[in-house]
Amino acid sequence: xxxxxxxxxxxxxxxxxxxxxxxxxxxxxxxxxxxxxxxxxxxxxxxxxxxxxxxxxxxxxxxxxxxxxxxxxxxxxxxxxxxxxxxxxxxxxxxxxxxxxxxxxxxxxxxxxxxxxxxxxxxxxxxxxxxxxxxxxxxxxxxxxxxxxxxxxxxxxxxxxxxxxxxxxxxxxxxxxxxxxxxxxxxx
Length: 188
Description:
single chain; eight-stranded mixed sheet
């Protein structure tokens, strides 16, 4: 199913998702929306990775953001956001066994990205139109850093996420929302 159809079927969790859903749906008509060559905004895919008993979340210490954060990345032309989320999670964590808990979108976000240096070149500020999936992995499987992107990969108790991330907006608007949604998923 294409992303537009998935988004149309997606029921927003809160007002942030309602607004962001409309922005992303409109942006799908833009040229190169799945490529970084669209320097204003592009589709990205993220993973909220939980352990088997839904008490921990896997995070990476991202070099660009200088913070513990979720895993994910650019689609770079791939329109299958779930596949991208899994691929990025594996690349950034070293995990080999990551499974989606559902093929459905778990969360959506329009994220601002401040201008930064990447591989010696300046990248202007832009938007990530982000699609998040709920994935699961074994917390005992060995993890590895991806030198060019992160300085660490570690499991944290869900309650620790707001203490380890240094990005207040992400804590308030994204990570707390994702943890709440996980808890609701477990109680269903």
